[in-house]
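hi support,

uploading two proteins for the ticket. first:
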Amino acid sequence: CAATSTASEIARPSEPGESGLAASAARPASVRSEGEGWIVAPKVSIIISKGSLEGIYPGLIMANGARAEGIEANLFFTFFGLDAIHRQRHEHIKLATVGNPGLHLPTMAGGLPGASTVMTHYMNHKMEQLDIPSIPEFVEMIADTGAGLYACKASVDLFGLEKDDFIDQVQDIITVGEFYESAAGGQIIFT
């Protein structure tokens, strides 16, 4: 008899004593079984490390979805992800066109002058048609729901930035240790 599995079985946290594929996935302490259903973690901490449209939007969408479901959400911006909360840069985020396999363009075409600008304009237009807010608007909306927005101290120091360089919604500049402390008991998602 060949073993089979579905995506839901793979993603389902294992119960103590279970064996096989389901048991190999560690179950966070905050996920528990209630009858046939599963209770999701009461909070999520999302790390945004990329400074491009396709690097920032997934984290914002995840945080917005969490807040819509009543789940506590914190966003931790590190490295180039800091651009999403940088006062002078957050309105000028571009789509990465060089080496982006999702665009299905040869790398050379993505590197042509203006390619990033054209593709960014196209994506922004498509998102506007779908009523997806711009990054600055989305960040503000998420912050207004009570989500925490934090900048990574190591990255802030690396790039010579200060608290005044960030938008008002950024609550603090914190260390990785402080991030882990605030994330304790919840899920961590790296986008």
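and the second one:
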Amino acid sequence: RDQPRSRGLGDVYKRQVIKMGLKFSRGILDSVNSRTVGMLSALTSFIQDVEIDANSVFGLELGKLITVQINHLVTSRRHTLAMGNVINWLKSNIAVLPSTLTHEEARKRLCANIDDFVRGRIKLASEQIVKKALGKIHDGDVILTVSRYHVVEEVLMALAKCVRACVRHQLGVCWWCLANLQRVTPPPFAV
């Protein structure tokens, strides 16, 4: 069989993906949302830069090439369930690209779909969770966090801007927090 007609496995095309993989492995991006947005950003750069032979079907060739990029990211740090869902979403978007589109039109459509996904399903969702959580926290409430989650941090920063009197403590003073808890509210992402 002839050699593949597509280019895109070279370092020039993987540069953003390699950088993102390093961020994943070093723990620079540690939350699910930041890793998902970072992954989609790197893959968007790859989609914009990859060269695919004009005589080939863009969606088919891109599907093969993007799998290699995704495997690199997953090898850098195991993906979460949410990231796996996003990977499936992206692959299905690539698979349904109409073959009647030019390569440039297909790139633009795919990148626009990714931008819409990040804006609508990740950033807007986080903003809504913060708004809902702010409505459940009242002056004088004691907030106990067990782990670090970016949406919880956003809620605490928003509370600080509102000048609400809330206290945040580490688990070392858990006994004090538990003694002062007035009610238990489920985490913001569960509401």
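thanks. also noticed: The mean pLDDT is 82.
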